[in-house]
Specification:
Elements lengths: L1 E3 L5 E7 L8 E6 L9 H14 L2 E2 L12 E11 L2 E12 L7 E8 L2 E8 L7 E2 L7
Parallel strand pairs: 1-7, 3-4
Antiparallel strand pairs: 2-3, 2-5, 5-6, 7-8, 8-9
Length: 135
């Protein structure tokens, strides 16, 4: 799970179909460091400062059970240079396949946001994954 398009923090929560407690489990917070958009040393400084001081990371990982619905919720709010902002929670639900790697990306696009799921088993390909209705 990762965020892109802005350096606002995003909280990710997950829920597995087989979990006895069906409440969303907070995994943590991610922040896009700006890698590729700002000078490399600034992006690295952002990553170190976020992970060391406020426990925000460039990405989070979670184990999903094959053939069982997996839900991911992304949420972002706070105060930025342009004032306060809020986006989400956005939910994605999909059924992972065995031996596949997935990326859930929370994308800031101008004043709005979107969340998408991709199959990234082949590192040079991003294949969009169709969501299932969340239960």
């Amino acid at each position: 799970m990762k965020a892109s398009g802005n350096t606002y923090p995003v909280q990710f929560s997950v829920k597995r179909a087989a979990d006895p407690d069906q409440r969303m489990e907070l995994l943590g917070t991610v922040v896009d460091s700006g890698q590729g958009k700002v000078f490399g040393w600034i992006a690295k400084l952002n990553e170190v400062a976020n992970s060391a001081t406020v426990k925000r990371f460039p990405q989070l990982e979670a184990q999903a059970d094959a053939d069982q619905e997996f839900q991911v919720s992304g949420y972002s709010n706070g105060t930025g240079a342009g004032g306060t902002y809020s986006c989400g929670p956005l939910k994605s639900a999909f059924i992972p396949e065995r031996s596949k790697v997935y990326l859930v990306e929370f994308q800031f696009i101008g004043s709005r946001c979107e969340q998408h799921v991709y199959d990234v088993t082949q590192p040079d390909q991003r294949i969009s994954v169709t969501s299932v209705p969340a239960v």
